[in-house]
Design goal:
4-stranded mixed beta sheet, two-stranded parallel ribbon, 6 strands
Length: 172
């Protein structure tokens, strides 16, 4: 990010709570959950403006309405080269499917790196759009998620991808 680049923010209401969108005129840099113990607060140098996020808001609404399966937005996540590799891999997980951390590590050609994949997954700055919620434990269990496991469960349920063990455990 250039020091001269203007960063914009906009808070969007969604079925999983308020989301703070961050970006510039060209790309989305972040999606931040506003519920929970550590909501992101806009910095003083960020400009509140919904206009740069019109398309992101439209696509998020369509996703939550079940009408969109693949996002097509300019994204500019900031991270290490390994994090960027993991985040690109996350974007290849098909809608309605889940992969384990180990599966992503194998697909990256680093089968021993499942914990590193988990750490990179947890640092994903653009959740939902870069679908880190589609990553589950090797045993099919839901594992950590920045928005909390209830939101992860809702997103996977929306996509019809909630693992069978999770479906059974939440019936009663």
């Amino acid at each position: 990010m250039s020091a001269e680049r203007v960063l914009y923010h906009h808070t969007l209401d969604s079925p999983i709570g308020r989301l703070l969108l961050l970006g510039d005129q060209d790309a989305l840099y972040g999606v931040h959950f506003q519920a929970g113990p550590r909501p992101t607060r806009p910095r003083k140098d960020w400009v509140e403006d919904a206009r740069p996020f019109r398309e992101a808001a439209r696509q998020l609404k369509a996703y939550f309405d079940g009408r969109l399966k693949t996002f097509d937005l300019p994204l500019a996540p900031q991270g290490t080269e390994f994090q960027m590799q993991v985040w690109r891999a996350l974007q290849t997980i098909p809608y309605g499917r889940t992969w384990s951390y180990g599966e992503i590590a194998r697909r990256l050609g680093r089968p021993e790196a499942s914990r590193a994949v988990g750490a990179a997954n947890g640092q994903n700055p653009i959740p939902v759009i870069i679908p880190c919620h589609r990553v589950i434990g090797a045993d099919g269990s839901l594992t950590g998620f920045g928005g909390g496991l209830p939101i992860k469960r809702r997103l996977l349920t929306l996509e019809g991808a909630l693992p069978p063990a999770e479906q059974q455990s939440k019936l009663f």
